[in-house]
Design goal:
The chain is mainly α. It folds into 2 domains: about 1-190, Up-down Bundle (Growth Hormone, Chain: A); about 195-390, MFS general substrate transporter like domains (Growth Hormone, Chain: A, Up-down Bundle), CATH 1.20.1250.20. Helices cover about 75% and strands about 0% of the residues. The protein has 14 helices and no strands. It has helices at about 10-35, 40-65, 75-95, 100-110, 115-125, 135-160, 165-180, 195-205, 210-235, 240-260, 270-290, 295-320, 330-355, 360-385. Helix 11 (about 270-290) runs antiparallel to helix 12. The longest helix has 29 residues, at about 135-160. The radius of gyration is 20 Å and the shape is globular.
Length: about 400
C-alpha cells in the first residue's frame, strides 16, 4: 500500500511539526471570541478580532509565500511562527487591552505564519517519492480536518474550565514548539531552475482558475459552519447539535482524504475531478436547506465531508502540474489566501442574508454563489488547458512533467 512509504522518521516529524503549527490556527477565531466575550459588546468584538486574524492570513499569505526561498526556508518559517506566537501571547497576557491593540495582535498572529502551510506542503512533497505525493497530501488533509474537528472542543473546554486567555496561551506555546521543530526537518526543499521574479508572478497569475475553484470549495464550509446553528433553530432542533454535526463533517472529510489516497489514479483529469467533487459538496449543502430531520442532516454533512477533502486535494495536485517547481510554495500560499477569502466572502454574505431571509434561503443563495465560482473556475481551466497543451494532467499521483514557459 502506498501509505506505507510515508511511515518514515522525516514524515512523522513533519506531521508533529504540522500539528503543533496548525492547531493554533484552527483554534484562533473561537479563542478570540472567548477571550473578550464577557466584556461589553464582547461577542461583536470577538467577531472583529477573528476577522482581523483572518485578514492577516489573507493579506500576508501571497506576499510572504512569494518571498519564501527554498534554499533558506527554515529561518523565514521560524520567524513567521515566532511572530505568530507573539501575536497569540499578547492578548493572552493582556486580555483587558484596548480593542485596537488586541486587533493588532490578532492581525500579527494571522499574518506572521501565513506562508508556513504552503511551505510545509512543499517540504512534505520533497520528503516522499513522486509516486507517493498524492498519499502524502492525503495525509496532510487527514491531519488538517482532524485538527479542525478537535479545535472547537479544546478551545471551549480550556476557556470555560481554566480561563478565557488559556487557549491563546496554549496557541503561543504550540507555535513556539513548532518553531523549534523546524530544526528537526530539512532546511528547505529541492526545486528546478529558479524562475525570474516577473516570470514567477506570471505563472502564479496564470493559475487563477485553480484558486477560484479552491475558494468555491471552502465557501461551502463557511455556509455549513456559520448558518447551521440558525438553521437548526429554524427547524426546531436543539442548537447543541451544531457541534456534533460539524464534527461529523470534519471526520467525513478526513475519511474522504484517506480514501482518495488509496488509489494512484482516479477517472478523469484533475480539473474534471475537482468540478464534480465541488458540485457534489454543493448538492449536499443545498440539501441542508430542505431536510428537516437531524439524522438526515448528519448523513448529508458526512457525505459532503467525504467529498470536501478530495476536492481540495485535486486543487493542490493541479497546482503541482501548472506551476514550475520553484513557484510551488508561493502557489500553495496564494491558494491558502484564496480559500480564506472564499470563506470570508461566503461567511459575510451569510451573515448579511440572515438579517433579511430565513437560514434555509440564505444557504441556497450561498450555494448559487458557489456554483457561479465553480463555473468561472472550470471555464478558466479549460481555457488554460487549450493555451498550454504541455500542461495536460496525468492521473493523480503519476510523475509530473515540467512545464516549459
Amino acid at each position: 500500500m502506498p501509505y506505507r512509504e510515508l511511515v518514515t522518521r522525516p514524515v512523522l516529524t513533519w506531521c508533529a511539526v504540522t500539528v503543533t503549527g496548525r492547531l493554533p490556527v484552527a483554534m484562533a477565531p473561537l479563542a478570540f471570541v472567548f477571550l473578550v466575550r464577557e466584556r461589553p459588546g464582547g461577542y461583536t468584538l470577538g467577531a472583529v478580532l477573528a476577522a482581523a486574524y483572518v485578514l492577516g492570513e489573507i493579506v500576508a499569505a501571497p506576499v510572504l509565500g512569494m518571498r519564501t526561498k527554498a534554499e533558506r526556508a527554515r529561518p523565514q518559517l521560524a520567524a513567521g511562527l515566532a511572530v505568530g506566537a507573539a501575536g497569540f501571547a499578547g492578548p493572552a497576557l493582556a486580555p483587558g487591552a484596548h480593542p485596537v491593540v488586541l486587533g493588532a495582535f490578532a492581525f500579527l498572529a494571522g499574518a506572521g505564519p501565513a506562508a508556513v502551510p504552503g511551505a510545509l506542503r512543499a517540504l512534505l512533497t520533497g520528503l516522499v517519492p513522486e509516486r507517493a505525493v498524492t498519499q502524502a497530501m492525503s495525509v496532510e488533509s487527514i491531519l488538517t480536518f482532524a485538527i479542525w474537528a478537535a479545535a472547537p472542543a479544546l478551545v471551549t473546554g480550556l476557556a470555560l474550565g481554566a480561563g478565557s486567555g488559556v487557549p491563546l496561551l496554549l496557541q503561543a506555546v504550540l507555535m513556539a514548539v513548532a518553531t523549534a521543530g523546524l530544526w528537526l526537518l530539512p532546511p528547505g526543499w529541492a526545486t528546478g531552475p529558479q524562475e525570474r521574479g516577473a516570470s514567477a508572478r506570471r505563472a502564479l497569475l496564470r493559475a487563477w482558475p485553480v484558486y477560484v475553484l479552491g475558494a468555491a470549495g471552502l465557501s461551502l464550509l463557511a455556509l455549513a459552519e456559520l448558518i447551521l446553528p440558525a438553521l437548526l433553530d429554524q427547524r426546531g432542533i436543539g442548537i447543541g447539535w451544531a457541534g456534533p454535526l460539524l464534527a461529523g463533517f470534519s471526520l467525513g472529510s478526513a475519511a474522504g482524504a484517506f480514501v482518495y489516497g488509496l488509489r494512484s489514479g482516479w477517472p478523469g483529469s484533475l480539473p474534471v475531478q475537482s468540478v464534480v467533487l465541488v458540485l457534489g459538496v454543493t448538492a449536499g449543502v443545498a440539501l441542508l436547506a430542505v431536510l428537516p430531520w437531524t439524522g438526515a442532516l448528519a448523513g448529508v454533512l458526512i457525505a459532503a465531508g467525504l467529498l470536501q477533502a478530495p476536492a481540495m486535494l485535486t486543487r493542490n495536485l493541479a497546482l503541482r502540474q501548472i506551476l514550475p517547481p520553484s513557484a510551488l510554495a508561493a502557489g500553495y500560499s496564494v491558494m491558502y489566501a484564496a480559500v480564506g477569502a472564499g470563506y470570508a466572502v461566503s461567511g459575510s454574505l451569510a451573515g448579511a442574508l440572515l438579517k433579511v431571509v430565513a437560514p434555509s434561503t440564505a444557504i441556497l443563495y450561498g450555494v448559487a454563489l458557489t456554483v457561479l465560482l465553480t463555473a468561472v473556475g472550470a471555464a478558466g481551466e479549460r481555457r488554460l488547458a487549450r493555451r498550454s497543451p504541455t500542461a495536460q494532467e496525468p492521473a493523480a499521483g503519476a510523475p509530473v512533467r515540467k512545464v516549459r514557459r
